[in-house]
Amino acid sequence: MPDLLRLAAFTLDPTGGNPAGVWIGDAPPPADQMLRIAAEVGYSETAFLTPDGSDARGAYRVRYFSPAAEVPFCGHATIASGVALAEREGIGRFDLRTNNGVVVVDTAYGAGGIRATLTSVPASARDAAPELFEAALGALGWRAGELDPDLPPGVGYAGAHHLILAAATYDRLARLDYDFDHLRAIMLAADLTTVQLIWREAADRFRARDPFPVGNVVEDPATGAAAAALGAYLRWRGELTPPARFTISQGVEMGRPSHIEVEVPGADGGIRVTGTAVSIG
């Protein structure tokens, strides 16, 4: 029988972080059944893991479903999966074959429990087309003058695409009230998974909020895929000198605080994202 687990990622408090479903079985269910299970679990994403068919230890095929649709990659469900697999099989490396490539997850014991570190597929970033970010600003109710001029709108990719908009002040970030259907239509047309709204608190410390209407979720309390995409954006912009590290606080305004650690290696390759996860009783 498959196991269906519920964990909160990027936290050690079951009432914090971002809840994820982790389904582990011998054979994958049909896609419509995975979608149904994800909807029944009710979290922003559920990861479905099955052995990838090789004899290698820790090699799994993984697919991610929100309650509304399949998504190409989900960071917090990957962190939750890494912790769940380490609890079942022991600490070590796990190779998760996603729709867009292999994501390596390294697990180790740390303060408070098991820590999982994912290495994304090769990451990249680009300028956001003016018509895209202007439309997004309209749906969000933001004005162009409220953006940080030092961090212009961009699109980051580390397995999924995320529009990155940087607020000039925390006050602007703290007020989130947007047109759900309008933003969802914009994101679907541009193949975006979330819109990552950030405020740079310090050179190595960010606050973030992530609307996720394409998954029928108003806001994500922790978004590992967007954290990796932000690492790609900052590297592309020259805002940090690799190898570099920074942290993201997310979910605070929702009452589900999350702590995300990001490591940006050299000029090429994937971004590393580290977090903890804890079972939700």
Question: Would you mind describing this structure in some detail?
Answer:
The chain has 6 helices and 17 strands. The chain is of the alpha+beta class and 281 residues long. The protein folds into 2 domains: 3-119, Roll (Diaminopimelate Epimerase, Chain A, domain 1), CATH 3.10.310; 124-269, Diaminopimelate Epimerase, Chain A, domain 1, CATH 3.10.310.10. Strands 1-2-3-4-6-7-8-17 form an 8-stranded mixed β-barrel. A hairpin with a 4-residue loop joins strand 4 (59-65) and strand 5 (70-71). The chain is globular, with a radius of gyration of 17 Å.
Summarize, please:
The chain has 281 residues and is an alpha+beta fold.
The first-to-last residue Cα distance is: 20 Å
Order of helices and strands: EEHEEEHEEEEHEEHHEEEHEEE
- Overall structural domain count: 2
Our count of helices gives 6
- Give the C-level CATH assignment of the largest domain: Alpha Beta
Strand content: 35-45%
Mind telling me the CATH superfamily name of the largest domain? Answer: Diaminopimelate Epimerase, Chain A, domain 1
Largest sheet: 8 strands, mixed, barrel
Overall mean confidence score, pLDDT = 96
Assign an overall shape. Answer: globular
Instruction: Write out the strand line-up for the largest beta sheet, numbering strands in chain order.
Output: 1-2-3-4-6-7-8-17
Spans where pLDDT lies below 50 across 5 or more residues: none
CATH topology label of the largest domain: Diaminopimelate Epimerase, Chain A, domain 1
